[in-house]
């Protein structure tokens, strides 16, 4: 490629990379149309709850979250026990105290009639509690909220956590804790509405017999809860709503209404798209609770009571986000310094390659719902940057050796990349495969790291083998002495006397 073409292509690439760098990494103040501050893609990407910090131009704290303890039926907190006991009359105190047994050094109290079998917790309660926890875990897993967690506390309570960035934490604890059977009732008001799904008692069909799935969707700024019915479900709703004028369908879990649908005419369709005032998060929340209850809920499930919601600070400290950015920046500067010192102006090719990789990873973390900026994802991106740097150095060294044997620079580059191609390709494929395999089998806490690692290996390999080589190719025509441009040297040959 000649100098003119190289200059045009290099200029265009530089402009594109510069613009993308600003959009991805650089927030700045601006005016007009009420928009006073432009926030970068990095700024608006979801943050892990474990990382704390403040974004430039924002006053809202990023990091930490909210947690609450869910108490199954028959289990109350030690504080509630003491308060109830204190509020009881003298005649009632003895009876109240005899109904409960202290557990976990008084942290919780167990109702004897509901939870205990003699002096020990009954096996039936243990099974019911285990089933309740599994439903909770499934709901949190389906939401894919970074930083969310479900863990057993004091053996028979459940501590649930959601990041501060999740806007529905308060409602989510109440909704996600709803246990029991999914039902649909129809009538002119909730009090008199009759259950139509499942069919009247005496049949063996659960709610899943009438519904295929319940999901959510957001399109053109409007969010929906979508209920896909079977033929039996469609028939049941159509029969109940025949001739309806001003009535309602109530979709409930454990007797609590999650959706109220106004019915002004017969409903005879296989899918219901219910919008109302939902946004993306609230429609996903409602759909998740309804779908899991439809699949797993029974009328005998343990009821859960939500305790006081507590604000949790970021696990790694209030400045962890900034400290992570600084550490990341120092390592990248060290990598660039090595390339410029060892390979001269060829370091610019590595710089462009590295920037393309970082831009691609930032866009992925922002665009993929369950990815977030956290310790796991940042470490995966950093590891990918290290692998990319090692791969670039490997390619440069192979080209250096080819040039040292007397080949021209163009042929040395071509031959060098050809010889190291499969080494670099195999390394990235193996690491990417490990990342994606780990994602499908890993614990929730490791899934973000594993998936990000798989993506990082893909873009690292692509950047090294395609972007890096192309940048070298278009930069080379500007060098009068191509060897000095790369700081390559020929092998010295001793002459015979």
UniProtKB/TrEMBL annotation:
UniProt xrefs under SUPFAM superfamilies: Multidrug efflux transporter AcrB transmembrane domain (SSF82866)
Alphabetized UniProt keyword annotations: Cell membrane, Membrane, Protein transport, Translocation, Transmembrane, Transmembrane helix, Transport
TM helices/strands, residue ranges: 7-28, 320-341, 348-368, 374-399, 420-442, 448-475
GO terms, biological process: protein transport
Gene Ontology, cellular component aspect: plasma membrane
Protein name: Protein translocase subunit SecD
Native organism: Candidatus Gallimonas gallistercoris
């Amino acid at each position: 490629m000649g100098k003119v073409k190289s200059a045009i292509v290099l200029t265009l690439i530089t402009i594109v990379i510069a613009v993308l760098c600003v959009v991805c990494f650089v927030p700045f103040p601006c005016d007009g149309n009420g928009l006073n501050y432009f926030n970068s893609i990095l700024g608006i990407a979801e943050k892990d709850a474990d990382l704390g910090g403040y974004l430039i131009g924002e006053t809202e704290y990023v990091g930490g979250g909210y947690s609450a303890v869910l108490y199954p039926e028959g289990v109350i907190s030690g504080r509630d026990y003491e308060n109830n006991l204190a509020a009881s009359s003298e005649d009632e105190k003895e009876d109240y105290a005899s109904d409960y047994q202290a557990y976990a050094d008084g942290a919780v109290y167990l109702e004897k009639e509901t939870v205990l079998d003699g002096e020990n917790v009954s096996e039936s309660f243990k099974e019911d509690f285990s089933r309740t926890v599994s439903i909770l875990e499934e709901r949190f897993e389906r939401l894919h909220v970074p930083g969310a967690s479900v863990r057993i506390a004091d053996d028979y309570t459940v501590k649930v956590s959601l990041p501060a960035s999740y806007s529905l934490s308060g409602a989510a604890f109440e909704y996600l804790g709803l246990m029991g059977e999914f039902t649909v009732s129809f009538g002119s008001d909730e009090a008199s509405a009759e259950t139509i799904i499942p069919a009247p008692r005496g049949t063996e069909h659960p709610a899943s017999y009438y519904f295929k799935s319940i999901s959510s969707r957001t399109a053109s700024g409007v969010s929906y809860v979508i209920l896909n019915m079977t033929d039996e479900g469609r028939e049941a709703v159509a029969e109940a709503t025949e001739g309806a004028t001003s009535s309602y369908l109530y979709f409930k879990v454990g007797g609590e209404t999650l959706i109220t649908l106004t019915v002004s005419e017969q409903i005879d369709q296989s899918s219901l798209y219910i919008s109302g005032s939902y946004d993306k998060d609230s429609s996903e929340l409602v759909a998740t609770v309804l779908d899991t209850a439809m699949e797993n809920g029974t009328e005998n499930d343990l009821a859960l009571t939500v305790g006081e919601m507590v604000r949790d600070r970021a696990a790694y400290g209030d400045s962890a986000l900034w400290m992570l950015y600084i550490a990341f920046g120092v390592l990248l500067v060290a990598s660039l310094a090595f390339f410029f010192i060892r390979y001269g102006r060829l370091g610019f090719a590595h710089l462009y390659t590295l920037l393309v990789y970082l831009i691609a990873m930032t866009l992925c973390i922002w665009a993929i719902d369950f990815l977030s900026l956290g310790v796991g994802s940042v470490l995966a991106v950093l590891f990918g940057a290290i692998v990319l740097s090692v791969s670039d150095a490997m390619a440069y060294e192979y080209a250096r050796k080819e040039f040292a044997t007397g080949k021209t620079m163009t042929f040395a580059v071509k031959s060098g990349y050809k010889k190291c191609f499969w080494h670099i390709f195999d390394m990235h494929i193996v690491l990417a495969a490990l990342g994606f395999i780990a994602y499908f089998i890993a614990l929730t806490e490791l899934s973000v790291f594993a998936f990000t690692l798989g993506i990082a290996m893909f873009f690292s390999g692509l950047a090294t083998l395609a972007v890096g080589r192309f940048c070298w190719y278009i930069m080379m025509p500007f060098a009068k002495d191509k060897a000095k441009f790369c700081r390559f040297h020929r092998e010295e040959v001793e002459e015979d006397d």
